[in-house]
Amino acid sequence: MAKRTVIIAGANGMVGKEILEGLLADDSVTEVHSLGRKLPSMAHPKLTAHVVDFASLPGLPQADEVYLALGTTIKVAGSQQAFRAVDHDANLAVARAAQAAGVKKLGLVSAMGADASSGVFYNRVKGELEEALEKLAFEGLVIARPSLLVGDRDALGQPVRRGEKLGLAFSKVFGFLIPANYRPVAAADVAKSLLSAVPQAQGKNILLSGALH
Fold it and tell me: Do 53 and 86 touch, CB atoms closer than 8 A?
């Protein structure tokens, strides 16, 4: 594979951290530019960290791929408007800036249930972002739609999400009854799936949660 320069937004999150670690371990990746509101928790010779305001992004370095893993919850954000500013507006701003920097391929961490016409606010915002990214017409677009995520939020200094905790406990007992797309999925598996799919992506590709395991 040709040498690649990659941009990632959201490397301090549970999936984003796994994506970043995978990129840094990949010999075909020569440069990684991380965008965030604070510095990532790791340092590496290939990593250049940029502390940015997503509402007024500067020009980005030329790159081949971009990974969008920015996300929050309404509870943490404090309001629906603040949630949308992160999960929709910030991700879309990075995508537009990356496209202007020559990026051809994009990977997105979305969610099961993403649907721009959904009556559920969370799902609607996720779906609206997917539609906005599709309109940008990247050469390759990979959308991962994980169900409840499994990972160590404590290690990231993030509050444990009650739904994820309950979902994991339920699946350990009744997992055989849960359709594959709705079983909890490890953040590492979501990251690996995107890292495998994005470099070779052509057109729009959706990876449902069952395929991420």
Answer: no
Identify whether the C-beta of residue 65 lies closer than 8 Å to the C-beta of residue 199: yes
Q: Tens of pLDDT along 114-173?
A: 999 999 999 999 999 999 999 999 999 999 999 988 866 456 555 555 555 555 554 555
Q: For 28, which DSSP code?
A: T
Contact between 99 and 79 under an 8 Å Cβ cutoff? The reply is no
Place of tokens 């893993």: 69
> Cα-flanking dihedrals φ and ψ of residue 182, to 5°?
-120, 10
Tokens linked to 8: 């990632």
Question: Distance between CA 117 and CA 127 in Å, rounded?
Answer: 8
Mean pLDDT, the chain, rounded, equals: 90
Domains, the chain, with CATH or none: 4-212 (3.40.50.720)
Condensed to tens digits (0 to 9), the pLDDT of residues 194-212 reads 999 999 999 999 999 988 9
pTM: 0.88
Give the list of residues 6+ apart from residue 173 with CB closer than 8 angstroms, or none: none
User: CB–CB of 118/131 below 8 Å?
Assistant: no
* Rounded CA Rg of the chain: 16
